[in-house]
User: Which sequence fits this backbone?
């Protein structure tokens, strides 16, 4: 099974893109566990909550891998790099468990969503201002530049993003 992770700052179309790609390729996508957790538990999260969310994301991903074991492709909204960035940006530190998972978990392609979509209000979003959004994007971009998995920047309107993502997936996985 090939695994494609969609990452980037909040309000950059990650979930929309995952859903579109899963529909297009007739496969599944793993949602972001943090949404479920924060919806239930509220936005007054702690550093230790991030570890719970990180473990929940891995468990959710594993459950989809188990259910879709005959599938050739799986799209994943968020991975442990997102948990690392979140912990370091908000609390100035990251759980060792998250760092360990980054080295253990294997993916085939990253799609990095740019901040060129307008920020959309959502009760779970924290960074409407351009400064933090740009800072976060640059952190993700630096991570992508310094790891070995192929990655593609996804930018433009929703349709352009979708077309760029399809091309990236097809280019990487074409026979």
Assistant:
């Amino acid at each position: 099974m090939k695994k494609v992770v969609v990452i980037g700052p909040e309000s950059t179309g990650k979930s929309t893109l995952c859903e579109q790609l899963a529909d297009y390729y007739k496969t599944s996508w793993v949602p972001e566990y943090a949404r479920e957790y924060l919806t239930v538990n509220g936005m007054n999260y702690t550093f230790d909550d991030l570890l719970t969310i990180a473990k929940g994301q891995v468990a959710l991903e594993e459950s989809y891998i188990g259910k879709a074991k005959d599938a050739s492709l799986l799209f994943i909204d968020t991975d442990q790099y997102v948990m690392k960035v979140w912990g370091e940006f908000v609390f100035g530190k990251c759980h060792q468990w998250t760092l360990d998972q980054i080295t253990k978990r294997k993916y085939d392609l990253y799609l990095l969503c740019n901040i060129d979509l307008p920020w959309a209000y959502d009760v779970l979003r924290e960074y409407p201002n351009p400064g933090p959004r740009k800072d976060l994007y640059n952190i993700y971009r630096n991570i992508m530049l310094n790891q070995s998995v192929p990655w593609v920047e996804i930018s433009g309107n929703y349709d352009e993003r979708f077309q760029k993502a399809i091309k990236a997936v097809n280019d990487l996985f074409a026979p």
